[in-house]
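ok trying this again, last paste got cut off
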Amino acid sequence: MQKPIIALSIVFVVITTAGAQDANWPPEKQKESEFTGRKLHVFKHGNRKEWGYAEPQRDTFLVLHPKQARSNAPLYVVLHSAGHDVHSCLACTTKIGNHDIYHAPQDFFALYLDCRANKGDWWWGINKYPGAEVSPTDKRVMDTVLWVIKQYGIDENRVYLCGNSMGGSGTLGIGIRHGDVFAAIKANVPAEVKHVSNRMYFPPQKLPADVKLPDPPIVVDYSAQNDGWSRGHDAFVKTMFERKYPLILYWGPFGHANNHANIMKVNDLIDSFDWLSVKKNESYPVFADASTNDPLPWPNQLTDKKAGQINAFFRWKNMRDTPDTIETSLFLVKPAELKTTFKIPTEATVDVSLRRLQTLRVAPGTMVRWTFGTSNGEVRADTGGCITIPRLKITAEPTSLSISKVK
């Protein structure tokens, strides 16, 4: 009679544990206080069984409110570095120059997440959970972001992800995979590109034919060639171009730095693109293989003292997005609009792809017609339905790129 009793006990323990996990979600508010003149909420939660953690755990996240109460506010999501936890990450924001990427705009909500509390979450999950499958850590982060969006009435088209070092690795790895949530992401000296390479099926992996990934957010990355953690950026850039993914990259010999003022002494472009104005419900152009891109220092010019950029000078304005036609104005930033030590080009030749189309639907392999100034032609959408117009000549004078279906 002993064996059936033991079996029943095992079943009871399994059911109880699963129930306890579910009971720890949604998050519970532990504390409400004020931080730097802004309301601060501290939450704790357990794990959901859907995340796939092998053992129960307990996590903390912080929600910092806008300075002035507002509705439909944007959300600034922060992933901390290896030298911090969620609390010390927020503490950095009391001083300008201390991990400036952590400092959320005054009129935003901000979400600060933690990856120190539980084994396996370290390095935002990529060390314990290598490969392409979205990990328990990735799922926890994304469910927390989605819960905060709903709980605080966030503008779901203006959700942004950023991080420093280890948090920069997580920003690339988690953020690029989830362009259905994040409008844009920004990584300060990401500590390797292993996370994004694995989660996005970058070479030597291959993107399976049956896997459909959402169009990624616009990606801003600033890394240093004299920082060992930046290794692999040559392959990262190559694949981003091949996949027609959006990338703005800045570099220079500023090491593994987190102070923006110090970094800008080496490369003063790092804050020149307004990534927090990007909206998820608007299309965007992808620029690849531009004639104005500087030669990458990776992998063989790591002692190079030059600062450089990729796609730093391109700008655009969405004009029209209908079921039949999409129209976007493309141009280069003018010297009067950007103070920099870099020479701003007057002309650039570049391949342009369009992503996040809102109403125009283009099936894979479909022919479309395009016009750009006095130029025009037809191109075929690729196997993912992405449209690329090769070698457009862009100047400081705004010129409309129009794409429509061939009737």
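PB: full thing came through this time. The chain has two domains: 32-281, 315-407.
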